[in-house]
Amino acid sequence: MEALGEHGPSMEGIEVGGLRIELFHLYVIYQGTAPFKGARFPRGNRGLLLVLPPRIRHNASEWEVAMAPGVLTNYHTHCYLDDGSNKPEEYVRTAIASGMRALGFSCHAPLPFPQDWVLTKENLPVYIREVSGLKRQYADQIEIYLGLEVDYIPELAGPQSQSMRSLRLDYTIGSVHFVGGEENDIHLAVDGPPEEYLEAIQEGYGGDVKRLVRDYYRLVREMVAEQTPDIVGHLDVIKKNNPGGRYFDERDAWYRDEIMMTLESLAASGAILEMNTGGLARKRTDAPYPSPWIVSEARRYGIPMNVNSDAHSPEHLVHWFGEAKELLKSAGYREQLVLLGGKWQMTEL
Question: What is the mean pLDDT of the chain?
Fold first, then answer.
């Protein structure tokens, strides 16, 4: 590990492999290097964190940069057991190397019908065992939390269902990935491949994308009211297959009305709204979830937020975090609500 370019007065510091790190440093971290194992940045750090995977240590054009003035955390993480890659321990090691205080795993919970991107009922215990083991193994280096991303499907699945409560999870992320068509008797994916999205519009809603979008947000409102999760996942994922406004325009009054009704429900529920950078990491969107104008409206409603990467591979754990935090600040946020010490608490952005 190297620390380069001191940019301010020496204040509180930490010892890392014999090297004292002060506040107001520029930190360059080589992922997986032994000297950094177990190191943590002091709270209130105003440094610039550069996370360099070993394969690109000397390729500045590929550096993953994250401004990390406050506590660095992530609670939306997948792995090889659902639609992510790599074993959970690889995410933990990367998180430690990135200076994270807490890492939460949130694989897709099993569904009542076959899907190849969720945990199966058979590997759910494997997932719980692996994450629980890592929580114990790395307890002196990072806080590990066990969660699930749970689909809301009326009468079939939800974050507060008995099956989820019985698992004694640390937290849940509630998401809507399916709409049910006009008869609410089919399961149409809204964030899959573009051809599936088009099929959902045509077969489920007679070619009327407005009805599909309204149904999506109706389900989100139902979820936060009836099956309230700790975190609401990728609120406007419905835009994922709408590049350039191909199917609808976010500026239209009907769309903004749906958002405002949904934010009102979310505010009443007390759930956290995540800023999700996963679409950017996987190059499926040119903005985070939710869009910046929605973040500004969420602030007006007093909705707490936190920054999550929706990482499907370890190198994306802190993707776009610096920009995300600046976006939150520009909307008026000064803190994010994070899980630390086993409880949800506000920390400086």
Answer: 84
